[in-house]
TrEMBL record:
Example of a GO cellular component annotation carried by this entry: Golgi apparatus
A Pfam cross-reference name: His_Phos_2
Any single biological process term in GO: chondroitin sulfate proteoglycan biosynthetic process
Full protein name: 2-phosphoxylose phosphatase 1
UniProt record similarity statement: Belongs to the histidine acid phosphatase family.
Length: 486
């Protein structure tokens, strides 16, 4: 009898523990659900995914709308026509002779391993332009026109966020940009002759794929297939003027300056250290606010949940604080006294190559279009050399464009052809010609439509590159400037 009673007591105790466990689970899981779901507001956009993605088998994914934080992403929806071409369309005394375009590649995956990267969907919503482009690539009969890139993948993975690689969103950005510029320039001159077009890309897959998408959108398929792509080994398009002993020393001074600014901001410094630990998987990644921003952009630009690690999570407000600090820092970064010199040395080979193409436009009437597909640093170096320095030019957004338009004045016929030609500089749709350091005098007013529109003489650019380029170093050539102490 005692054994029966003892067994009954044990059974009652087990039932009681089971009831307690059920009650605890009923309380814990709903609370956990609401805690997680409260972290972000969802905008309910449905985005197309692909069954080919290794880690995705869903028909749709709900993205988070980070609202104002996404301005750094430069989504295809906000890329639009700016000041490009407006002078040529309105002034009959001017003829557009040619266009040089430097682009930053489109949206890419992070440069460093970040937490939960396999759960981030980097796909784009389905649209006819994107689908038509993929169909065009799949039906190309020969890849020889791609030159050194003929063995490279023509487009990125459908949904995967691969380290440093272009995403489908990046393709969409470049298609939109090419289409906009085609609508601007096609009434002004023809892109029908492949001999009139030169396309350069750095050796990286993301810049090549960006160049190909842009070229498809601005040219006809027949013309595109007759152009041979050219490759540059360097970020800066330095060509034959790459090695320079003092550039590392100048760059160190610039980095030391922004490191000192960060040290004086103890609260933001601690925030950066904390977010760095949460976001980055590898311990060898340098703690740096700009590296951190690049990594966090992968979540923000693709509407993915911000990461957590060891019960600590990145919040939207944390990201807003980081971005606000970097906006503040970039304004000071742009004013660093050594930045102009650094840009001059890093972009000298690029400036020479551009000058060669400018002179051909003037003397031979071609090329009509020159594309350089590059990086944020490519644009930063060149704009710094030109003296166009502000917070927007230090880290240009994905799919940023820097456009040089070359015009001929039809009312002039001088013995020196270079005196008949002018150019203007447009960065992300905004005319910045007036801020170019060698264009402060000798302007040509573009006409009665807008007295604020000015053109800079081509001869000013040629004189700057061949005679005045190294004045800031009190030197006469590249080697001499590189031997100077910063």
């Amino acid at each position: 009898m005692a054994y029966v009673q003892a067994g009954a007591v044990r059974n009652m105790a087990r039932h009681r523990y089971l009831v307690y466990l059920i009650i605890w689970l009923c309380i814990f899981f709903p609370a956990l659900y609401f805690k997680i779901s409260d972290r972000h507001i969802l905008d309910g956009r449905i985005v197309n995914t692909s069954n080919n993605a290794a880690h995705k088998y869903f028909e749709s994914v709900i993205r988070i709308d980070y609202k104002d934080l996404t301005k750094v992403c430069n989504s295809p929806q906000i890329i639009e026509h700016g000041d490009e071409g407006n002078i040529g369309l309105l002034n009959t005394s001017l003829t557009l002779q040619g266009v040089i375009v430097l682009t930053r590649h489109g949206d890419r995956g992070p440069m460093n391993h970040i937490r939960n990267i396999d759960d981030i969907d980097c796909g784009t919503s389905a649209n006819s332009e994107y689908n038509d482009y993929l169909e065009f690539l799949q039906n190309i009969s020969s890849l020889q026109f791609l030159g050194p890139f003929h063995e490279s993948p023509l487009y990125p993975s459908e949904n995967t966020c691969s380290l440093s690689q272009l995403t489908p969103v990046g393709i969409s950005q470049m298609l939109k940009l090419g289409r906009i510029l085609r609508s601007v320039y096609s009434p002004l001159f023809s892109f029908a002759n492949s001999d009139d077009i030169i396309i350069y890309s750095t050796k990286y897959r993301r810049t090549f794929q960006s160049a190909l998408a842009f070229a498809y959108a601005i040219l006809s398929p027949d013309v595109l297939s007759k152009i041979t792509f050219k490759e540059s080994d360097s970020y800066s398009y330095c060509f034959d003027h790459c090695a320079c002993s003092i550039t590392d020393k100048i760059h160190l001074k610039i980095k030391q300056s922004y490191s000192r600014r960060l040290k004086r901001r103890e609260v933001i410094k601690k925030l950066i250290q904390r977010l760095h630990t949460i976001v980055h998987v590898m311990s060898n990644v340098k703690v740096d606010p700009y590296i951190l921003r690049d990594s966090i952009m992968t979540y923000v630009c693709h509407g993915a949940p911000l990461p957590c690690y060891q019960d600590d999570c990145v919040t939207t407000e944390n990201v807003r604080e980081l971005f606000k600090y970097l906006d503040w820092d970039l304004e000071r970064y742009a004013k660093h006294g050594q930045l102009h010199k650094y840009g001059l040395l890093k972009s000298y080979g690029f400036a020479l190559n551009m000058a060669k193409n400018l002179l051909k436009m003037v003397s031979e009437g071609k090329p009509r279009l020159v594309l350089y597909s590059g990086h944020d640093l490519t644009s930063q170096y060149l704009l710094s050399a030109l003296g166009v320095l502000n917070s927007q030019t230090i880290i240009p957004y994905y799919a940023s464009r820097l456009v040089f338009e070359v015009y001929r004045d039809n009312t002039l016929d001088t013995p020196d052809p270079s005196k008949d030609f002018y150019f203007r500089v447009i960065f992300n749709g905004l005319d910045v010609t007036r801020t170019v350091l060698f264009c402060t005098s000798g302007f040509y007013s573009a006409g009665p439509t807008d007295q604020a529109d000015y053109l800079c003489p081509i001869e000013s650019a040629i004189r700057f590159i061949h005679e005045d380029y190294f004045t800031a170093f009190n030197a006469s050539n590249f080697k001499e400037a590189c031997d100077k102490q910063p």
